[in-house]
Amino acid sequence: xxxxxxxxxxxxxxxxxxxxxxxxxxxxxxxxxxxxxxxxxxxxxxxxxxxxxxxxxxxxxxxxxxxxxxxxxxxxxxxxxxxxxxxxxxxxxxxxxxxxxxxxxxxxxxxxxxxxxxxxxxxxxxxxxxxxxxxxxxxxxxxxxxxxxxxxxxxxxxxxxxxxxxxxxxxxxxxxxxxxxxxxxxxxxxxxxxxxxxxxxxxxxxxxxxxx
Length: 212
Hints:
Elements: E1 6-9, E2 12-15, H1 25-40, E3 45-49, H2 55-63, E4 68-73, H3 76-89, E5 94-97, E6 111-116, E7 121-122, H4 131-136, E8 143-144, H5 151-160, E9 166-175, H6 181-187, E10 192-198, E11 204-210
Parallel strand pairs: 3-4, 3-6, 4-5, 6-9, 7-8
Antiparallel strand pairs: 1-2, 9-11, 10-11
Helix pairs in contact: 1-2
């Protein structure tokens, strides 16, 4: 994808380069699961937190055009790329240069669903990754401190819960590190329908829950 400058994601052709993470197959599975939920529940307002190329936001907008889709990223370069993809595809998404800690600022009214594929790879695993990933994907989209691998999940759960970014009954959906799925699920203690989903390789790679 780095050589070709493009990647296919959930039926969409996205421009890709070093400004954002190349979309992964497991993220496509997350998109499909969330899209089924937003259609079933006729979601009106959806957020993609940490949008990168815009892949999740654009897949949700394409699959459920009636919803208002909001996307945020801490990287202005990634947002530029996401915006280019939205323009090329003719899909309207509201792009915001906002950090996870500021999610609630965008939640007026609260979202019906929030989906996120945040950085989750501990620094200690850097040496184990393929050079294609380490040498070309932006490190800020990949790695988290070894002593705080759940930092972004914790922030998003707080923003969606006590921060009020997600409505009662709304969906929070994460892509997760296969070794951390149980720990992410524990952050959602007290939420409804906390579920760990496996990908096509039978690895626990998604965690979903509904706000009480």
